[in-house]
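quick one, two chains, predict together pls
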Amino acid sequence: MFSEQAAPTAQGLLAPPSGEPPTFPRVAVEGYSDLSQPFRLGERSFSRQYAHVYAVRLAGMRPRLERRARGRWGNDIALRRLSELQEGEKCCVVGTLFKAMQLQPSILQEISEEHNLVPQPPLPKYIQPSDELMLEDELQRIKLEGAIDVQRLVTGTIVAVYGCEQEDGRFLVEDHCLADLPPPLPWSGPSSDRFVLLASGLGLGSMSGEALLSTQLLVDVVTGQLGAEGEQSCAAHITRVILAGNLLSQNTQSRDTINKAKYLTKKTQAASVEAVKMLDEILLQLCTSVPVDVMPGEFDPTNYTLPQQPLHRCMLPLASAYATLRLVTNPYQASLDGVRFLGTSGQNISDIFKYSSMDDYLEILEWTLLAGHISPTAPDTLGCYPFYKSDPFILTECPHIYFCGNAPRFQSKLLQGKEGQRVLLVTVPDFSATQTACLVNLRDLSCQPITFSSFGADSED
Amino acid sequence: MERPRRITDSFPRRRRRGPGRPPGRLKDRKDKDKDKAQLKVRDCPRAASQPPPDPALMEMLRRFDLSWEYGPCSGITRLQRWERAQELGLSPPGPIRDALLEHGDNPDVTYRWVWDGVGW
């Protein structure tokens, strides 16, 4: 991108300095609106049970699934509740999936004294061939078997199954369907090239100097301090930077000071204090030049349950003096220049990865869009706030750009839907591991990676 | 002349806890007192200033609680549950809402069923 669109009269780095250094004003921000209001929690009450989340999810998605079932299997199919099932009658049931997994970590098993078990170490995947799927609606549940991929689906998905009940009480599935892509949003994107930089997993506080050099290079490119005039004029087209979570590294989360004696740990400071100071300095450099949206991630100092609330601005005193810094929630939804962004810091995708046979982060991202829900495994295996009124993770409109942070590598795909939806799916890679960020062009929904690798001490050169 | 500005306008006085009390929100104490007051009120007959709630009304509200169409009833007030059912398009009966608003100050009516370990 940079070399193709360099200004034609730009001079290279080896030219003598010009008398009047040219300036490239950054393209102005037009039409930004933050739409993540449903993810902001005001007063929080944890005295509720999670049954409300599932009840509201099913009630909210049932109409859409019934419409889709009628469209797929005919208008005259019988839509039944589980309590109305007749044996041998072909009908369609809409309900929530529950996958009974033997390896799923269960706190009750761990603390049960009669088993005397050592807590299970975390595994990359908890799937087993012996897993079973059950369909639950408001009152009953039934075991599913047949043409349904048990390994691929996860708990909490709302599905419509078509089949009939057997004598032994199981439901034989002939076909099933998910909610499919949500209805499309009108497209009013910009007519000229506008770029948004997506980066995630900066991983500050990990005590590795190489990662810091790459981060500094990223900041320098965005603020136009790197490259000749060609690169600088291109960098001026970057309208926004979105940092999708894990700004701090996992090393800052070590809690061994809890087990040590007080006299040994009295003077030690939490590793996250130093890391947040570094983050503040980096954000200061970015904020002086470009609007930045900072989303919290798994290892950041904010709440653990989804939706994660924004980082508090008192942690970033230098950077929060600038109005260009926006501290936002995870998941994050915003409309930029008429283009709708929706993304998370990756906890939802990595949780589905653990409990499903799907291996590809892009495939899982696409699957969540087709299932109509950002994070079906919450609250079962992923922490979630006990909502009671509505489930804000249900996708009601199809975003134009749907991203997830902290993926193992960069992938992107432009998905076309039957009703005219056009979605760019982006898996933003972990910057501390891959030194790669993504540049999304808002005009034509194209995406390309940009890598800032430096030569390490052990590389041959 | 207007009242001179005091520092307590921006930093209001807070009730100090006694020495040796574990750190925690003062609100906890207030909630416990409220619960005790509610229990007391339920045991003894209601004060004469408020008319006693109609047993037919209480029965109607109980049936509203136990009807499965409107979702779980635990942990939220009846009015919240009614409004949630309304938004989801389940058309809960209107008289229930009128009754809930009319007796909004009666804790037996507004009633949020919370599992507190005492029951059976």
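The two ends of chain B are 64 Å apart (CA to CA).
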